[in-house]
Design a protein that fits this description.
Keywords: Cell membrane, Glycosyltransferase, Magnesium, Membrane, Metal-binding, Purine salvage, Transferase. One of its GO terms (molecular function) is xanthine phosphoribosyltransferase activity. The protein has about 160 residues and is of the alpha/beta class. The protein has one domain: 3-Layer(aba) Sandwich (Rossmann fold), CATH 3.40.50.2020. The protein is about 25% helix and about 30% strand. The protein contains 4 helices and 8 strands. The strands form 2 sheets. Strands 4-3-2-5-6-7 form a 6-stranded mixed beta sheet, sandwiched between helices. A two-stranded parallel sheet has the order 1-8. The longest helix is centred in the N-terminal third of the chain and has 15 residues.
Length: about 160
C-alpha cells in the first residue's frame, strides 16, 4: 500500500508528455498511437500532437471491479494496431505491471512508453520520463480538484475569537 503521495499538476503532466514525445522523435514515424485507457488518453493526445500522428487507437484493460482485483481482461481491443508493429503505446504509469503485461502480449511489436514508472514494472516499458518510488501513489490532475484554502492569517483570526 502506498504511504507517500505525489500530486501531478496539469502543467507538469503536459511538460512530461512533451519530454516523452521528444525522446520518441528518433523513432519516428509511427503508424499510430494506442492509448491505454483511461490514464493514457490525455498523454496520448499530447504526444500525438507533438509527433504529428493522426491515428489514435485505444486499448481498455480492466484489472479490478468495484470490490476486488481480478484477472486482467481486455474489454476493448486496439483493432487498427494489429500486433503493434509500427505503433506506439502510451500510458500514464506502469505500477505493478499487470496492465502493461497484458498490453505487451496483445501488441508485442509496439513501442511501449509512459510518463511515470515504478521499479516493479519499469522493465516493461521502452521509454519513461520519471521513475517513482514503489510506495508512492500518484494523484493525477483528473483525480483531484482544486479547493479553496483560507489564508493562514484568517485561520489565526478565527481561533482568537
Amino acid at each position: 500500500m502506498a504511504v507517500n503521495y505525489a500530486t501531478v499538476t496539469w502543467d507538469q503532466l503536459h511538460r512530461d508528455a512533451r519530454l516523452l514525445a521528444e525522446s520518441l522523435v528518433p523513432s519516428l514515424p509511427f503508424k499510430g498511437i494506442v492509448a491505454v485507457t483511461r490514464g493514457g488518453l490525455i498523454p496520448a493526445a499530447i504526444i500525438a500532437r507533438e509527433l504529428n500522428c493522426r491515428l489514435v487507437e485505444t486499448i481498455s484493460v480492466v484489472t479490478y471491479d468495484e470490490e476486488s482485483r481480478g484477472e486482467p481482461q481486455i474489454i476493448k481491443a486496439p483493432e487498427a494496431a494489429g500486433d503493434g508493429e509500427g505503433f506506439l503505446v502510451i500510458d500514464d504509469l506502469v505500477d505493478s505491471g499487470v496492465t502493461a503485461k497484458v498490453v505487451r502480449e496483445r501488441l508485442p511489436k509496439a513501442v511501449f512508453a509512459c510518463l511515470y514508472a515504478k521499479p516493479a514494472a519499469k522493465a516493461l516499458t521502452d521509454k519513461f520520463v520519471v521513475e517513482v518510488p514503489q510506495d508512492t501513489w500518484i494523484l493525477f490532475p483528473w483525480d483531484t480538484a482544486p479547493l479553496f484554502v483560507p489564508p493562514l492569517a484568517s485561520k489565526k483570526k478565527d481561533t482568537n475569537n
